[in-house]
Amino acid sequence: MSQSINKNNLKNKTAVITGGTRGIGKAISAELGRRGVNLILNYLRNHKEAKKTQKELNESNVNCSIYRCNIGDIESVDKFINKIALEHNKIDILINNAASGVMKKSTDLDVKHWDWTMDINARGTWYISKKLSNHMVNGGNIINISSPGSSMVLPDYFPIGVSKAALEAITRYLSIELAEKNISVNSVSAGYVLTDALNHFPDKDSVVQMAKRSTPAGRPISPQDVANVVAMLCSADAEMIRGQNILVDGGSTINFNH
After folding, report:
1. Low-confidence ranges of the chain (pLDDT < 70)
2. Among 3.40.50.1860, 3.40.50.720, 3.40.47.10, 3.30.450.20, what is the CATH number of 2-192+223-247?
3. DSSP per position, 190-251
4. Catalytic positions, written as ranges
């Protein structure tokens, strides 16, 4: 028993979690914090919410710092990484959770909307992974948060779905290219999870209803379900899982009757 505990102990590891102050990112932050991980969280717009999350984590005896950074802007990411390098000797875990996008069909999409979505969801994931991998001196884990829309066609989801497909390709390539540094790279694809992100869907009411309904597993998917899988992938038990996309949807996407 003690050997198993030691093998999967994340205590004193340091994790960078983009978009880590609300929604699924916040659940991941809290779960890794519970397991003894020191947290470096990024946010873009909502400073008040970020401070609230930091306060909650600190009160739970979790070492947590927050930084404002636009993952879609190269200069902003460089500044973010430079601050991290000054304050931390090493990084063990990177969770690429930050995401954005415009809910439109391909025929209604402007080039600026395409660029915004791809810059954050795909280019940003590649760039920050490339940079922070240099600070993973003892190996590490990179987990990218994806979506079933990467392979399924969802309504008005064109640019986000395409960016998530790119993210999963990035996951596969990085898993091979970073293997020589003993860095494990995987992605976790979350089904409809009830978070504030659903408010941005054009058909918000129907999407919220989908998120609320029971899956074949017998209940809706929660942010905690996603956080548990992310934490597992950061543990030694997942050492031989490389370049994979783990679907957390309670069986919804394979259920014809749903």
Report:
1. 1-8, 194-214, 256-258
2. 3.40.50.720
3. E-SB-SGGGGGSTTHHHHHHHHHS--TTSS-B-HHHHHHHHHHHTSGGGTT--S-EEEESTT
4. 157, 164
